[in-house]
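Input record (Table S2, row 428):
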Amino acid sequence: MKLILPAFLTLAAGACLAQQNTANYDESKAGEVILPAVLKSLDGAKITSSDEWTSKRRPEVLSLFQDHVYGRIQPKPDDLKFEVTATRRDALGGTATRKFIHVSLAKHPQWRGMDIMLYVPNKAQGKAAPVFAGLSFNGNHAVSKETDVPVSDRWMRPNTKNDKAVKNNRATEESRGVEASRWPLEMIVGRGFAVATAYYGDIEPDHAEGWKEGVRAALSSDAAGTVWKDGDWGAIGAWAWGLSRILDYLETDKDVDARHCAVIGHSRLGKTSLWAGASDPRFALVISNDSGEGGAALMRRNIGETTEIITRAFPHWFTPKYRSYANNASACPVDQHMLIALMAPRPVYIASASEDNWADQKGEFLSGLNAGPVYALFGKSGIGTESPPEIDHPVGDFVAYHNRTGKHDVLDYDWLQYLKFAARHFGM
Ligand code: GCU
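Output record (alpha-D-glucopyranuronic acid complex):
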């Protein structure tokens, strides 16, 4: 059966593939990359200590990212409500307890809220478990293979791999488990970690007009009539806000050790996990899986996706100002190594995939490398090598990196590295 898509989606998907094919992949044409100095303040002073970084330069860099890339970070709302709607103690073959938590805003009922799915290992037995928190592309029922997980009824992008999984922008029974390979729940729980996840479309549906049904309209003074201006938040800001609200809930759940929460995301949700890690220092560890342009990849390199391409295809992800750097990235006062530096001294893991040239693997590596001087101020070592490592050779201490064999995806290989990394840094 032929899938009928709204015109803007067919255009976006088609345009994206065409752009992937015509983008530059020739290193000799990557352009001259002169990065903004991460350790020089706006007043010209050199930053030489971790205290100066924390009190002076970090706030500057964080504001620059808000003004020029992702938009202003919204404060924690004062009307946040959590309701545990279901608990099952014998989930995942008896190894985990699964809970659903509905998150809403009491004074902003126009936002339908978000449903967290939380798995906590049963073997933790009274000891709070460290936790991974991340958003999914297809809903809780797509992450879990358990058939009693409610199918999301929210707006959803068509599924490119299974055209029966989403019909008329709504998930069907066919979409159960479609994202399960990216969330190896048994493996994560088996290593003693809890997992908290929610559907990113609960926070804001991912299309140009999606904000009207999401938290951005609900929190805006002019609801759906808002005209977004430079410095206002975009969808990545909204999704990152949702991750912080997940963490707010985790802080209230005694089964979970919210002080050891690793935020994780893939692709556009990897851009989101980086922005969440930068904007909310409570995240103890940050993971970017194949986040590419607008995520870990340096914007000044003309390889794969560029600022021009991403802001044309997905303007709603960013603050409007970011579009002004299309074909003009060198005018932007930040580059993405400074985003990675905002995590310091917390551990951060950047992963690429060898066939994912669109995300510019070398640009992702270079961001991690160039965040190193900030980690050094804290006496922490970074990525530990000046040039990208061989494929399937993870490197790094507080800034870690790997380029895994294969496509743009999250595979068990990636998770095995993240689990090892988190266990090491969380002292497990
Ligand atoms: C597109 C987009 C990327 C994004 C990816 C995804 O390819 O150009 O920037 O990371 O979608 O989220 O899957």
